[in-house]
Structures are given as C-alpha cells and as structure tokens.
Amino acid sequence: MPPVFPMLTVLSMFYYMCLRRRARTTTRGEMNSRRAIESNTRALPINVEIVQYAKEVLDFSSHYGSENSMSYTMWNLAGIPNVYPSSGDFTQTAVFRTYGTWWDRCPSARLPFKRTPSNFCSQDYVELAFEEPVYPTAVHILETYHPGAVVRILACSANPYSQNPPAEVRWEILWSEAPTKVNGPQARQFTPCIKQINFPTNLIRLEVNSSLLDYYTELDAVVLHGVKERPVLSLKTSMIDMNDIDEDEDEEKYGCGMDTLNKQFSIVTLREWPTNGYFDKLPYELIQLILSHLTVPDLCRLAQTCKLLYQHCCDPLQYIHLSLQPYWARINDTSLEYLQSRCTLIQWLNLSWTGNRGAISVSGFSRFLKVCGSELVRLELSCGHFLNETCLEVITETCPNLQELNLSSCDKIPPQAFNHIAKVGRLRRLILYRTKVEQTALLSILNFCSELQHLSLGSCVMIEDYDLIASTMGAKCKKLRSLDLWRCKNITESGIAELASGCQLLEELDLGWCPTLQSSTGCFTNLARKLPNLQKLFLTANRSVCDTDIEELAANCTRLRQLDILGTRMVSPASLRKLLESCKDLSLLDVSFCSQIDNRVVLELNANFPNVFIKKSFTQ
C-alpha cells in the first residue's frame, strides 16, 4: 500500500517553490507548515479593508506648476479626486515637468550613465503619506490625461507621522513594469496587481517614466486599500508568475533592503579554486572591457568567484562612471564606505535620490568626497535632501575639477550655502531647479564661473530681480548655450535685451510661464534677431506671442527644432506655415490652447509637414 504522503515529485516541488514566492509575506514557519500549503481558505480573523486617499504629498522630483500655487502641482495628489472621471488638461491635477523624448534631444541634454540596470527606468517620483498604516491590498491611481507613465509603486516601512523613527528604513517594490504605450489620452483608474508585503505602510512612492507619452501625464488622486492585520495568502488569491521561480535572484535584483547591497560591497572571503579558468589566458584590458558591461551588483557578485575576478571587479578603472541612483533605497553611509577604495579615480558620480531619511549623513558624504572627489568632473545630487551648507563647502574644497553640478529639487539647502558654488571656477553646467538660491549668491556664481554653458534656474522663486541676473549673464557668461528660466516671475524686456546681446551662442531658452514678458515691447523679435543658433525656444503660456514673432523666428532661427507657444491667442495658421516651411529641422510644435489653431488646422499642418509633432491639447 503506497504511503499516505508520497515524496515530492519534481512537479510538486516546482509548485511548492511557486507558492513560496507568492506567499513571501508569511514567515518561514508558516510557509513550511503543511496546513498553510494545503489550506484553500484565508486565515482568520477576516480583516476589514480600509480605503484612504493620500493625506499629504511629502516629496517629489519635479512638477509643471509653480512653487506658489496649486495649478499643475504635485500637491494636487493629496485628498479626494478633483477631476476624475473627466478627461483632459486640468489645472487641478498633478503634472511632472517633462514628457516624451524631447528633453533628451535638446542642447542641454546630458549624457546617460552606463551600467544602468535594465529594470530601472524611472525619471520622476512622488511620495505620498496616508493616515493609517496598513498592509496594502490594492493601489488605485486615477489618471486623467495621457495615462501610462507610472512604472513602479513602492511602500516604505517608516511611518512619516511617528515620533520614533525606525533604526532602518526599508522600501519594498509593490509593482514594477517597463514603460508601455497606452492608446488614447482618456482618463482611467490604474490598478496593477501588487505584491503583498510583511510590514504595514502609510508611505507610498510612485515612480514614472513619460518617455513614451505624447504629452504630459496628469494624475488626480491615489487610493490605498489595505488591512490592519497581516493577511495570509490562500492558494486562490492570484495566479503564479513563472518569473518568480528564482527566489535568490528576485531578492537580490529587486529587493530594496540596504543589507543586501552592503553585503555584496563588503565581501572579502573568496572561494579557493585551483585555477582561474580561461580568464588566466585573457589580456587584462580585455577582461576589463567585458566587465564594463556589468551593473554594480553584478560586479559585486562576480568578485566572489575567484581572486583574479575579485581584482578586476575592485579595480578603480571599473568605477570611472558610477550611478547609484538605481539603488537609491539601498545606499547609506556604509555603502559609501565600502565603495571608497574602488572610487579613487571616479569622474562621474550620480547620487540622485539617495540618502534621504537619514540614510546618508553629512559626515558620511564628506568622508567619501574627501577620498574620491579629486578627479570628479560630474556630480549629480538631484533630490538629495541630506545636503546642507557643509556638504556644498566640502564639494568646493575636494572637487577642484568639477564641471557639472546638479542640485535639482534640493530644496533643503539653505540660501546662504549656494555662495560656496562660486569657488568652483571650472563649472560648465549648473542645475538649480527648485532650489532656494538667492540673488546675492547667484550673482557671485555668475561673476566667478565664466565657463558656464548650461544653467537651469527654473522655479527659483527667491530671486528678486531677474533683469539684473540676465544682465550679469550677458556680461559674464559669454559661452552660455542653454538657459532655463521656467516660471521666472519678474524678468522684463530689458533683461531679455541684455541677455540676447551678450549670450549670442544660446541654442536653448526656456521662458515658459514668464508673465512679465510682452510681445508689444519687441522682446521676442529681438531674441529672434540676436540668437540665430536657437534650437529650442519655449514661450509657454505667454498669451501675447503674435504673428510678427513667429515670422521673425522663421526668418532668423532656421535651426529651430522645438517651439512651445501654448496658450497664445494671436498666432494665425499662416504664420505657422511660414515657420514650418523655413525651419526644416523643426520636430516639436506645441500649439495647445492657441485659440486660432483649431483641430482642422492641426490636421492640415500634420498632413503637409509629417515630420513635425504638432501638439494640440484639450479640456473636456
């Protein structure tokens, strides 16, 4: 008589492994229990599901709106829906700063970092706090215009409203997927199938990639469903994903705990092998070239195989360009300490999004730069909320060769700290988008950093006199090629005239949402005549742009590739035809909310100029 419980076959073992992957939130004891495997019912007691909208927006990387209003800002994600289920372009929604690939095809575009893992494609993020910590059962994202940008949803173990911060902050990916093209701009409720986690959360992070979108994505609200008690999965809760079979790979590749990466960095024990295989026969340079295609975690894993590959994987030449942004949730002081010996020759370093909630300290960052900063040429620190005046002082003292500095959305840096940047005389690129830089510090930077070629001052609301800033740029920054003055509130035709006269190499100029500029003063005509090299010009929401301005651009700026005149009421189809006929390289023309340009005109222009993306937005 056969035994009641036969030994596991290969098929049943495969089934068992799949169950373990799907029920990862339960303890090992629960999962090893035959009762937990064989039961087809949920564990009691049954939890009442809690449904809640975001209470507060805690952090974000960018937004289309102003720092002093609610229109098109991330703050609109807090609370109940304002727009949904309506579709269209509405000011009451949350909108990120960019869309499509246009920003990667302009003079200010930065070269990408190599070794970025294929599963990391996030461009922007927003973090939302909810009232009650719960074990998530569902996340609903209400998208009202051009949906499809969300690529990752994460949950955090830290309670933003707790008086006692945890010793370790843990992030867990609830859902992740590559960017996909959604047919049509209509509103939708996006509810991906999320993974269960083993801790309650009231902090949710959305990461987006808008590269496949035809226009700005607009989000209205986020709804978190969850239960107060930790649920146990039944066999009937969800289908098993074949990709979940490799438990070790999944934990290392997608887990967000800091311990995993730090253990890889710190590995020193190596297996003893009699030889290094065929690698002994390869030239050192060839092995280095092969390894240059590996991501940082893969390098750390490979270093554990043999002494020869350990030597190669720890060679500072492998870390000339290093982006730690994809691992933002796992980077802390210990990570930087482990990397110090490998990064003595580093030239490009990306620490964007890292170090928040105490993960990186001022002392840890300073120690790393004092060892590794001497050769740095490019330093990306976007959304680094740990940065303070000491950090900027250390950067200027330890990075004498620095040419590119990105402090985008580092809104915790105090205004006086920016004075230190003036000491970096070789700077060619400086991004200060959404920072608290003040006029005195900026004037000092412009006077001492005459090599500047790319400067972003978008949404810098603490600058009092942009005319003075523009005049100083015209006098001191003759090599300027791109300038972002997005939502600059007080620049006038006087400042524009000084800028155009002194910075005639300008190829890119963003004057979007600058309400003090009026076409009747001749400022746009002057720009077109003085700046023949313009490739990108954004005059977004300037309702005074007229046919004369467009015709001057057609006559003088024949290299123009991108033009945004959203919201103007005074541009006719005839002037646009002249522009399109003259500017053969034009690829983007935004005429949204231009009252004289209706859908019929857009269809006609698209038919006659098929190589130009002509955007016409709408509101229902």
Overview of the structural elements:
By secondary structure, the chain is an alpha/beta fold. Among the domains are: 49-227, Galactose-binding domain-like (Jelly Rolls); 464-619, Leucine-rich repeat, LRR (right-handed beta-alpha superhelix) (Alpha-Beta Horseshoe), CATH 3.80.10. Helices cover 26% and strands 17% of the residues. The protein is built from 18 helices and 21 strands. It has helices spanning 10-22, 28-32, 34-38, 247-254, 258-266, 284-291, 296-302, 307-313, 333-339, 362-372, 389-398, 439-448, 466-476, 493-502, 523-530, 547-556, 573-582, 599-608; strands at residues 50-53, 56-60, 94-95, 124-145, 150-156, 171-176, 188-190, 201-208, 218-227, 321-323, 348-350, 378-380, 404-406, 429-431, 454-456, 482-484, 508-510, 536-538, 562-564, 588-590, 613-615. A 12-stranded parallel sheet has the order 10-11-12-13-14-15-16-17-18-19-20-21, covered by helices on one side. Helix 5 (258-266) packs parallel to helix 9 (333-339), helix 9 (333-339) runs parallel beside helix 10 and helix 15 packs parallel to helix 16. The longest helix is centred in the N-terminal third of the chain and has 13 residues, at 10-22. The protein starts with 9 loop residues before the first helix and ends in a 5-residue tail after the last strand.
Helix/strand-derived class? alpha/beta
What separation lies between the terminal Cα atoms? 73 Å
Average of pLDDT: 88
* Shape, per Cα inertia axes: globular
Oligomer: single chain
Organism: Urocolius indicus (Red-faced mousebird)
Protein name: FBXL4 protein
Domain F-box: 276-331
InterPro entries: F-box-like_dom_sf, F-box_dom, FBXL15_LRR, Leu-rich_rpt_Cys-con_subtyp, LRR_dom_sf
